[in-house]
Amino acid sequence: MDISEKLRILSDSAKYDVSCSSSGSSRANTPGGVGNAATAGICHSFTADGRCISLLKILLTNYCIFDCAYCVNRLSNDVERAAFTPDEVADLTINFYRRNYIEGLFLSSAIISNPNHTMELLIQTAKKLRNTYNFNGYIHMKAIPGADEALIKEAGELVDRMSINIELPSNDSLKLLAPQKTKVNILTPMSFIKSNIIASREEQSLFKGAPSFVPGGQSTQLIIGATPDSDFKIIKLSENLYNHMNLKRVYYSAYIPVSTNPKLVNIKNSPLLREHRLYQADWLLRFYDFKADELLNSTNSSLNLNFDPKTDWALRNMDKFPLEINSARYKDLLRIPGIGVTCVKRIYRARKVHSLNFEDLKKLGVMLKRAQYFITCKGKYSGDVPFKENLIYSRLSPRFDLNLIESNKNTFEQLSIFPSPFLEKPKIIIPNLIPPPPPKPVSLLDF
Amino acid sequence: MEAVTQMDKYISYLYDGSFYGLLTVIYESYYSHSVPTDISIDTKVVNPQQSFLNDCKLITTDYEKAERVYNAIQTKIGQESLEQVYHALLSDVKGKELVIYNYVKLGFKIGKTIDSHLYTEEVSSLRKIVNKVNKEVHLMTGFIRFTYINNFYYSIYEPDHNISELIAPFFADRFADQYFIIHDIKRNVAVIYDTKEWVITSFYKSDLENLKGYNKNLVSGNDICYEKLWKEYFVNVAIKERKNDRQQTLLMPKRYRKNMLETKE
Questions:
Q1: Which of A26, A234, A304, A400 has the largest CB neighbor count within 10 A?
Q2: What CA–CA distance (Å, rounded) separates B208 from B181?
Q3: ipTM of the shown complex
Q4: Model pTM score
C-alpha cells in the first residue's frame, strides 16, 4: 500500500477528532533545528467544513482491538484498514512542515495488539521527529488508556500536548457503548499527566533546563448527541475537568452517525447548533468567570438554542441590569451579553481617562446589537426598545424558534407518522415571554 | 503641539512614501505651523482636486529632521506608539498618512497614555489600520506555501499590506536551517534568507528564472509527491456532513487562495 493510500485511510479515521489547536506552548527553535511553537497557535488552512487545519492529524493505524459502538474504527466495522510506520509519519510531518503546510503533528492511534505496544509506536514517532530531525514544532499526542505510566511519562517529555478522550459524558453511556473503556481507565492517566505537569513546572522554575512535560497542557473530547446525556451534565463535567484536572481544553464533537448500532440514539442530523452553544458555555466557564450552576440546573438542563448562553443567563437575571459602563466592576462587565474579553479590556482602559458615552463605545469597537439593552452610559439607557423584560426578550429572539426546529428535525425522521405543527403550517413563531417547555421525548409508549 | 491658530496654513504635502519621509513631513508641518489637508506619495496624489486648491508642497526626506521626530515620538509618546505608526505606514489603506499625522499630533498633546484614549477618532482610526496589518501578518504566517526548488524553498504571495519585513523574522526563526525566498508578486519585493540573515530586496519573476538556472524543472520530483499528498489530505479531512462554505470563506478569504497550493486552480 503506498503512502497516498495510507494517508487517505488514516486521515479519514482521524478527522472526527475535533481538537486542532496548536496553542499554549512556546517551544523555541534550537541551533541547527527546525521549527518552533507559537503560543497563540496558527491556522494553516481551512477545510470545506470551515474547520482549521493546524496540525497534520492522522492515526498511526486504525486496526483496533476495541469495539466502541460510536467509533468508526471499531473492530466490528467493515472499513479499510492501514498502518503507517513511525518513520513514514515522521518523514511526512517534516516535509509538510518545511513547506509551511502545518504547525506540527497530531498523532493518535487505534489500539493495535495492546495499549503498551501502541504507546511505544507513538513514542518512536515523536523520538524520530525530535531527535533525528531536530524538530521543534508542535506535537499533540494521544495517551492510550491502559498504557503503563512509564510510557506516558516518556511521551509527555517529547510532546507539547497530550489528550485522552472521554468521548461519552457519563459512566452509564460508557458502559453501554464502550464496554472495554472504563471511567477509571480514562481518569487515572489523566490525573497522572496532571501531576506530572505540575511537577515539571515546579522543577523548571527551580532549575533552568529541567525537562518540560506536556507544556501545552492536556485536553479531551466529548461526543454530543450520541447518548441522552444532558447539557447540564456535560458542562458540569467540563467544569470539574477544568477545576480538578487542570485541563486546557474540552472539545465537543456533535455526533455524526457513523454506525447504526441499536444502542445509539437514532439521529439523522448531527446537533451542530447544540455543539456551538456548548462551546459558548465552555468559553463562559473559562474566560468569563461563570459557574456551570449559573447557566443550567437539573430541572432546566438543556442550553437554550435561541440565545447564546450569556444572553440567556442575562434574560433570566434582568434584576442585575442595566449596568453602568463607567462604574461596573470588571467581572460584571464580562457578564454583559455581546461584549467579549477584548472589549471589556478596552472599556476598562478607556474609562480611566474619560467618562464613556454610547458613541464612544462604538469608537472602541464594541458591538452594541445585544449589549445596548443591558447597559447605561453616564446613567443613560440607549436601547432601541424601553428597558422592559418582555420587549428586550422579543427583540433578541430569532425569527424562528430554533429549539422547536432542531427537535423536530430529528423526531421527524424517526417517526414520520407523528404530526408536527411546524411542518404542516410553516409560520413565524412569536416567542412567548416564557420560553417554550422542552419538547417531550418521543417514544412509542406515549403514543 | 500647539493649538491651531488663525495663522495656520492649509497645505497638501507630497513625500517619497518612506517612513523617514513621513517623519520629515511631520517636522515641516510643525515648524511651519501648517495643517496638512492631504499627505500623499508624490507619484500618486490621493486627492488631486484638493491639492489643486491648496498649496502643494513637496518634502524631501531629511534624516536629521526625521530623527528628531523619531526620538520625540519615542520619548514623549512611547516605543509602542512608534511601532504602531510604523506598522500603519506599511498598510495599503488610503489616507493612512493623515491618520498617522493626527495620531502623532494628539500623542504630543496627551503623552504616554495616548492609547487609553481609544474613544477618540485619532486613536481609533489608527488602531483599525494597525489591526488590519497585524491580522494579515498572523494569517500569512499560516497561509504562506513553500515549493522546494534546487535546494531552496520558494513562496509567492500577494498580501494586501506591505508586510514582508514583518513576516521575515518569524520565518527566519522557524526555518533557520533552510534557504528560502518569500516573494510579494504584487510589489515585486522578496524576503531572501540564507540560513544566517534575511534581507528585503526588489525581486521579479525573471530573477526566479535566473536562480533556477539551467534546470528547467520548476519542482523536483520529490516535491510533486508531497504537494499531491497535501492536496489529497486537504480534501480528505473535511467532514462532508458539516460542509460550511461561509465559515471557510470568512476564515480564509478567497483573495489569498490563489497562491495557496491546496486551493489554487
A1: A234
A2: 9
A3: 0.90
A4: 0.88
